[in-house]
Amino acid sequence: MKTTEVIVAFILTLSLLSFPSLGFQSDELLVDDEEFGLEGAPQPRSPEPIPSRSQPVTTPTRKRHSDLDSDSKIQFSLDHAFGDSDFTPAGTFSARLKTWSHGGQTLTKLRFSRNSFTDEEKEKFKNLLESDDFYRIRLPSNVLSPPGRDFIISSVKARCLPREGLDEHFVIHMEGINVLAVNYGSPGSCPYPRNLKLPAKWSFNSHTVLKNSEQAPRAPVFTEEILGGENGEGEVVPPPERSFWAKYWMYLIPLGLIVMNAITQAMNLPEEQATGQVPAQGQPSGGAMQRGPSSAVRRR
Amino acid sequence: MAIAMAIRSFLFLLLLFFSSLNPILSLYEDQVGLMDWHQQFIGKVKQAVFHTQKTGRKRVVVSTEENVIASLDLRHGEIFWRHVLATNDVIDGIDIAIGKYVITLSSGGSILRAWNLPDGQMVWESSLQGPKHSKSLLLVLTNLKVDKDNVVIVFTNGRLHAVSSIDGEVLWKKDFEAESLDVQQVIQPPGSDLVYVVGFAASSQFEMYQINARNGELLKHESAAFSGGFLGEVSLVSSETLVALDSTGSILLTISSHNGKISFQQTPISNLVGDSLGPAVITPSSVTGIFSLKVNAITIFIRVIGEGKLEVLEKTNLKTAVSDALSISEGKQAFALIQHAGSEIHLTVKPADDWDGNLLKESIKMDRQRGLVHKVFINNYIRTDRSYGFRVLIVMEDHSLLLLQQGEIVWSREDGLASIIDVTTSELPVEKDGVSVAKVEHNLFEWLKGHMLKLKGTLMLASPEDMAAIQSMRLKSSEKSKMTRDHNGFRKLLIVLTRAGKLFALHTGDGRIVWSHLLQSLHKPQACQHLIGLNLYQWQVPHHHAMDENPSVLVVGRCGPSLDAPGVLSFVDTYTGKELSSLSLAHSVAQVIPLPYTDSTEQRLHLLIDADQHAHLYPKTPEAIGIFQREFSNIYWYSVEDDNGIIKGYALKSKCTSEVADEFCFDSRELWSVVFPSESEKIIATVTRKLNEVVHTQAKVIADQDVMYKYLSRNLLFVATAAPKASGEIGSVTPEESWLVAYLIDTVTGRILHRVTHHGSQGPVHAVFSENWVVYHYFNLRAHRYEMSVIEIYDQSRADDKDVWKLVLGKHNLTSPISSYSRPEVITKSQSYFFTHSLKSIAVTSTAKGITSKQLLIGTIGDQVLALDKRFLDPRRSVNPTQAEKEEGIIPLTDSLPIIPQSYVTHALRVEGLQGIVTVPAKLESTTLVFAHGVDLFFTQLAPSRTYDSLTEDFSYALLLITIVALVAAIFVTWILSERKELQEKWR
C-alpha cells in the first residue's frame, strides 16, 4: 500500500516538474484553449483565438508560462488617404507580441493612438464629406516587417464616420503576425441616403478589436452509446396520442357538410309539400319530425 | 333511402378519385425518358483505327481529347462501347493488336492497356516506368509474329519496352537514359524484325539506334552532327529517308542512312516555294515517299526521289488535310486528301506512287457551321463489283465527326457537345395565332385515341402492344418538343458554348439541336489566331416586346491563351442562331459583370473589366451611359488573385484618362484588399451567389414561433483557403500540417463577416452558395472521410422587428435601405457532417419564386447526380429535436449524410466525365430544370417538394371524367327514383 502511494506521489511530482518543460509533446486537440498556452503543439501557426471580441483588449493571465513566452512591444502605423490622395500616417497601433513556446506569435493588448487631424486634413475631410467620397486607411500585412507582402486597404464613405465626433471601428483579422483584413467603418449603422453632417468636434473616437480565426465545430461522432440512447428515447417517449378529432377532422368536416346538406334538403322537401297540400297519412320517416310543429301551427 | 345511396356512391367515387392522386416519391420505371433525356458523346477524335478483320469491319475505334476510347458503328455512327478515362489519364496512342485487342497507351506513356475489341472489356493492363519524362510512342509490330503474338513496342519515359499483346507482359526493355536523347520516332521497316529509334541529342546531334525487336539487343548505333540544329519533329518518308527542319525553319533536311552512314542533304525552303515567307512546319504523315510542308497558309507536297532529291508535286493555298497512308494491296499505298473550296470540300484519294492518278475524287457539300477539316482517317472496303471503295472519317473544326462515303455524308456526330464550357437558357417564341383546323382535328383524334389507350392501361386491359404504344406515345408526346413557349415554362432553349467555339441551342424537351453556330467572327485568321470562348451572358431578354423581338446572348471570347489578349464579343439571336453583330475589342477581358439595369430595348448593361482594371461599358449607347451615370457610385466589384493570395475590391472613379477619348471607359480605384499570408494560406475555392437567384422571404420562422432574419446580401463571397502544403493530393500531408479556412467576405467593403478554421482538413473544396447559406465539401484527414459543412448567416439588426406594435406604428426598419457600410450584426450557425462520396460538382435547385424547399445536386465521383435535401444540412439539427422542432422539419442529428438510392436524379444513367450542373427555374414554382454536362449530357425536371401546384403526368383525366359522368348519372337516377317513389306515395 505504502509503496503505491510513494509511486503515485513520485509520478505526480514528476508530472508537475515535467509539465512546463519543453520535452513534453502534447497531442491534445486544441479546442477551448483560451486559458493555457499551447503546450508543445507542433503547429507552426497559432490557432489560439484571442478573447478580444469587445474593446478594450484583455489579455488572459498567463503567469504560469511567463517564463516560456516572451513578450515584446511592437508598433505599426495606420495610414490614411482622402479620396485618391496618397497615404499619410494617421496613427499608431501598439501591441504586445507574444511568442509561444511552439514558435507561434500573436498580438495582444492592442492599443491605438490616433493623430488628431491637422487643419489641412480637416479641410480635406470636409471635401470628402461634401462629395460623399471615400476615406481610406491602410495597415501593413505583416506587423513585424511592414509592409509585408502588401498593404491591407479598407475604406468607408466619409459620411459614415461623423456622429458627435468622428466614430470609427476597426476589426483587425490576424493570422499570427499577419494582418489578413481590416473591417473599417462606423461602429453603428450608416443608412443609405447618406446625409451631409459635419462632426461637432474633430476628434476620433476609435474602437479596435483583434480577431483570430475560430475553430470549426467538429462533425458529430456518434458512438454506439448515443445511438442506443436515441433508440431508447424513441421507446420511452412515444408520440402523444392525438384525439380522434385531430386525426380525422379532414374527413369529418366534409362528411358533416354532406350530412348537413342532406338534412336541410330533406327538411325543405316535406315543408314545401306540407304548405302546398294536406299532409298525407304515411309520410316517409324523414318528414315525420317536421310534421309535428307544422300541424301544431295549423291547429292554432 | 335514395339520398343515402347517392351519398354512398358519391363517397365511393370520391375515394376512387383520391386514390388516383397518390403522390410519388421517385421515378417509376416507365417514367424514365418521359421528362429526362440523356445523350452520349465522345469528344474530339484524336486518333482512329479501322479494324480490318471480318468481324470488325463495321467498326472504328477512336480515342479522343476527352480521354474516351470508343468503338463506333461505321454504318450509323452509334457507340458500341465506350470508356471514359480519368482526366489525368490522357491517351497518347491507340492501335489494334492480334486482330482482337485495342491497345491504348495513356497517362504520359505509363499505362498500357488492352481492351477486347467486340465488347470493350479490359483484358490486361501494364504499368511502364522509366527513368525520365519523354515523348510516348506506341507501335504494334504486325508482321513480327512470335507464337501468334504481336509485339507492342512502347517508347515511354526514356525507355523502350516490348510488350506481349496477349498478356501485357514486358518481354524486354532498353534504357536510353544515359544519352540526353530526345527520341522522335520509332520505326519498323516493313518485313524486318528490326526497330529503329531515331532522335536528337543535344539539339544538333542526330542519333539512330538499330535494335533487334525479338530480344532488344542493340545492333547498331549511328550518329551524325548537324550544326544548324533541329526544329520540331522528323517525318519518315521511306525506310531509309527522313525529313526534318533546321532550327530556323527555313532549311529542309533530308536524312538518309545507307549501310550505317548517315548523310544530310540541305534544301532551302525558298528554293521550293519561290519566296519563303516564314518558318515552315512539316505536317505529320506516313505516306511513303511523300511529305507535306506548311509555309504560312500554303501547303506544299513534296516527293523524295532517291538520294535526297526533292520534287514539288503541288502547291496550294486551299485549306488542306491529309490522312495517313493505307496499304491497299501488296506494296501499294493510298492516302486521302481533303481540300476546302467555298462551301464544298473536295475529297481525293491518291496512290502514294502516282500523284496524278486519282483513285477517287468527290465533292461534298459541307455546312459552313462545321468549319475546317482538322483530321482525316481513311479506310477501304470492297464494293459489290469487287473493286476498292474508300470511305473517310473526318474531324471538323467544331469537333464533329463525319463519315464520308460515295460522295455523301453517311452520318455525323456532334461531338463538340462533349466539351461544354458555359450554359445559359433562352425562352422559346410565344405561340402565335393561326393554328390550322386540320391540325386540331388530328390532334383531337390522337388525343382521344391516346386517352382510350391510357384508360385501357389504367384498367389493366391493355395488351403488351398497347403498353408499348402508350410508352412510345408518352415519350414522343409532341407537347414537350414544340418550338413555342409553354405555360409551365418547361420548354426552353439551352444555349451552350463548346470549347471549339461553337454555340448550340438544345431543346429541353428532347435534347435535339435546334441550331448551331460556329463563331465565325472569332475565326478571322488575321484578327484572332487562337480564339478561346469564355462565357455566355443573356444580352437581351425581351418581356415587353416578347412578340416581335428575339432574345439574344452575348458570347465573350479571348484571342489567345494569355490574360491580356484582346477580347472578342459576339451577339447571337437565340431563336435563329444568326450572329447579329460582333466586336473585336481593343482591350482584354478579365471579368464580365452583368449589371442589374436594362435600357429601353431591354438590352442588359454589361461592365467588362480589363486586365488593367479599367471598366468598359456595353452596349455603347448614350442611353446606357445615362443609366450608368445614375448608378455610378453604387457599382463595386472585386478580383481574386489566386496565385497571389490577394482579394481586392474596386469602385469606379472617373472617365478613362487615355489619349483616345472613350466615354465608355472608366478608371477604377482600389477600395479594400484582403491579403492571405502566403506561408499559411492559399486560395483554393471562391463561390458567390447566383445573380438571378430569387428568395421568397427573408424571415425564417423557427420552432418556438420565433423569427430569424436571413442575411441576404448579394455581395457575399465565400473563400476557402488551405495550407499551401495541403493543396496537393489527399494523403500527401499529415493532419497537423494541413488546415482549411472558410471565409465569408462582403465584397463591397471587404469585411470578413465570418472566418472559421477546420484543422486537419484539406481540399479540394467544392462549394455552393445560395440564399443565406453556403455548403462546402472537403476532406477531413483526422476522420479519414469527406465532410460537408454548412454555414448559415443571419441578420441580427432586424431581430427586434418581431414586435407587431412596432410594425403597426411604423417604427420598424423593414423599409429602410440596407447599406453595406453599416456595421453588420450577423450571427452564423454551422455544422459539419460526414459524406461518403467525393465530388465532381455541386449545385442547388432554383425555382421561380424561391418558395419551394431546396435540394443540393451533388455530382458524385461515379458521374451521377444525387439530390440531397438541404434539410439534412441544417445547422440547427440536434440529437433530440423537440416536438416543435420536429414539426418544423428538423431531422434528428446524425454524423453522416444519408445517400438514398432513389434520390439519384440520373437514376440508372451516368453522365460520363461530369463537369457541371446547371439549374434553371421553370415557370411552375414547384419545378426546376436540371442540366448536367460532361462528356454526356443529361437533362431532367425536378420537383424538390413534389409537384404540389400541378397534377402529375400520370394523372388520369379519363378517370376524373368518368367520375363526373358517373356522378351526374347517379344524380339523375336517384332523382328519377325519388320522383317515382314520391308518385307512388301520392297514389297510395
From TrEMBL, chain A:
Keyword Transmembrane helix in annotation: yes
* UniProt KW keywords: Endoplasmic reticulum, Membrane, Signal, Transmembrane, Transmembrane helix
Question: Which Pfam family name is an example for this entry?
Answer: ECM10
**A cellular component term (GO) from this record?**
endoplasmic reticulum membrane
Which PANTHER family does this UniProt record tie to the protein? CHROMATIN COMPLEXES SUBUNIT BAP18-RELATED (PTHR21397), ER MEMBRANE PROTEIN COMPLEX SUBUNIT 10 (PTHR21397:SF4)
Keyword tRNA processing among record annotations: no
Q: What is this protein called?
A: ER membrane protein complex subunit 10
UniProtKB/TrEMBL annotation, chain B:
The family database entries (Pfam families) matched by this protein are listed as:
Beta-prop_EMC1_N (PF25293), EMC1_C (PF07774)
Q: Which UniProt keywords apply?
A: Endoplasmic reticulum, Glycoprotein, Membrane, Signal, Transmembrane, Transmembrane helix
Identify the stretch annotated as signal peptide in this record: 1-26
Transmembrane region positions? 955-978
Report whether Kinase shows up as a keyword of the record: no
Q: Which InterPro entries does the record associate with it?
A: Beta-prop_EMC1_1st, EMC1, EMC1_C, PQQ_b-propeller_rpt, Quinoprotein_ADH-like_sf, WD40/YVTN_repeat-like_dom_sf
Q: Where in the cell is it found?
A: Endoplasmic reticulum membrane
Q: Does the keyword Secreted apply?
A: no
Q: Where is the ER membrane protein complex subunit 1 C-terminal domain?
A: 770-987
- Quaternary data: Component of the ER membrane protein complex (EMC).
- Family in the record: Belongs to the EMC1 family.
The name under which this protein is listed is ER membrane protein complex subunit 1
Q: Which organism is it from?
A: Theobroma cacao (Cacao)
